[in-house]
Amino acid sequence: MLKSHVVKGFWLGLPRSFCRNHLPDHDVTITLEDEEGNIYATNYLAKRTGLSGGWNGFAVVNELNVGDAVVFQLVTLTRFKVYIVRETKFTKTDGALGLDTSLGSNTPEEESSNEDVNSEEDPEATRFSCNAFGNGRHNKLDSEEADDDGLRSPDPDTDFSAVKSFRDFNIVLDGLDIEPKLFPDRLRRMYYQLCCARKAFLHRHLLKHISPGLAAGLIVETANIAEGIRASHASSSSHEDLSAWKTILQSLELAGMDVAFLRKRVDDLHVAAEEKLERDHAEEKMRALTLKMSSLNDALKDLCMEAEEMVEWIAKQKRKEEQAMRELATAPW
After folding, report:
1. To 5 degrees, how large is the angle CA 198–CA 174–CA 152?
2. Which of 229, 133, 152, 164 is nearest to 190 (CA)?
3. Residue range 164-223, pLDDT digits in tens
4. Which of 62, 228, 291, 296 is the most buried (most CB within 10 A)?
5. Which H, E and C letters describe the chain, residue by residue?
6. CA distances from 273 to 181, 231, 248, 264 (A)
7. Is the pLDDT assigned to residue 102 strictly greater than 90?
8. Is residue 109 classed exposed, middle or buried when 0-12, 13-18 and 19+ CB atoms within 10 A define those classes?
9. CA–CA–CA angle 108, 111, 114 (5° rounding)
10. Is the pLDDT of residue 121 over 90?
11. Is 51's pLDDT higher than 50?
């Protein structure tokens, strides 16, 4: 975060390529959700690819400072989950996530230069850590711990064979338990069921520099989508929901979550939804045809009644004419 983001101006430019590929091509309201679940509405300006109105409020309420980093996770077309990493808590791990840890140590001259580069005229240059869920090509650490692929090595704590029941189920990352309070009980149970189905922890291969807080967010998103999938048999999910789930799952996969089986399930649901939509259209067309046939039957009945009435009238007229003819023929001279 620079002064132009959180002190004056309050303009946050986003990478043009990201906006072209993932955000609407017109001005729209974009929702930001912080780590506490609080919601903020912001104005997204498509031509300038950035956030203006509403971003000020988010920055002030969350007490963003110069040098802090903000991770945006796109969860739907117009909704971001936002994670804040304070400058004072930066580590090399955060740097490997694509967060610019050098901002806090800039000299005034360098900071001024950065502000010029990240001006409103060039929002492409704004630091926006979409790569945290992008192609996985993060900057390597200077230490020898960095792997070429950036994935975590097998960890004894992620051996699921030791889990015999939900009571034994602990979510561990780098040897540390992720606090249970970060997971609602129902989502924790859902994640347990998913891990049981795979006989493995789904987060075991997360990118090695993802922090526990961010990992918790990824796990919660995974469990939320699994809940949505389970509910699909009761109330069919919309095409928009399925598309959003697929996008999120693709991002989770890139972050190292083992969710390919969920993405396949969403693809299958999408196919089933398309088939159901096709059947619904056929049923609607059949109802329209039935209604039309009913109308035609009613019209046909009316025509039959008219025809019968006409036949009766003609027969009556014929009898009258014959009677008149006989009376005329037999009348006295």
Report:
1. 60
2. 229
3. 898 888 888 877 778 777 778 889 899 999 999 999 999 988 887 788 888 888 999 999
4. 62
5. CCHHHHCCCCCEECCHHHHHHHCCCCCEEEEEECCCCCEEEEEEECCCCEECCCHHHHHHHCCCCCCCEEEEEEEECCEEEEEEECHHHCCHHHHHCCCCCCHHHCCHHHHHHHHHHCCCCCHHHCCCCHHHHCCCCCCCCCCCCCCCCCECCCCHHHCHHHCCCHHHCCCEECCEECCHHHCCHHHHHHHHHHHHHHCCCCCCCCECCCCHHHHHHHHHHHHHHHHHHHHCCCCCCCHHHHHHHHHHHHHHHHCCCCCHHHHHHHHHHHHHHHHHHHHHHHHHHHHHHHHHHHHHHHHHHHHHHHHHHHHHHHHHHHHHHHHHHHHHHCCCC
6. 36, 14, 19, 14
7. no
8. exposed
9. 155
10. no
11. yes
Report which residue type is found at 329.
A
**Amino acid at the residue 312:** E
Tokens of 321: 């004419």
* Token duo for residue 149: 């692929």
Q: CA–CA separation, 328 vs 104, rounded Å?
A: 124
Q: How many angstroms separate the CA atoms of 70 and 1, rounded?
A: 8
Contact status, residue 208 vs residue 150, Cβ threshold 8 Å: yes
Q: Which residue is listed with tokens 């030791």?
A: 162
158-166 CB contacts, 8 Å cutoff, 24+ apart: 158/200, 158/201, 158/203, 158/204, 160/195, 160/198, 160/199, 160/200, 160/201, 161/199, 163/195, 163/196, 166/192
300 residue type, one letter: L
- Please report how the helices 212-231 and 260-329 are oriented relative to each other, as an axis angle in degrees rounded to 10: 30
Higher pLDDT, 60 or 130: 60
Cα dihedral 59, 62, 66, 67 sign: negative
Beta carbons within 10 angstroms of residue 96's beta carbon: 22
Residue 289, pLDDT > 80, answer: yes
Give the C-alpha separation, 98 to 130, whole Å: 8
Q: Measured in whole angstroms, how far is the alpha carbon of residue 64 from the centre of its chain?
A: 26
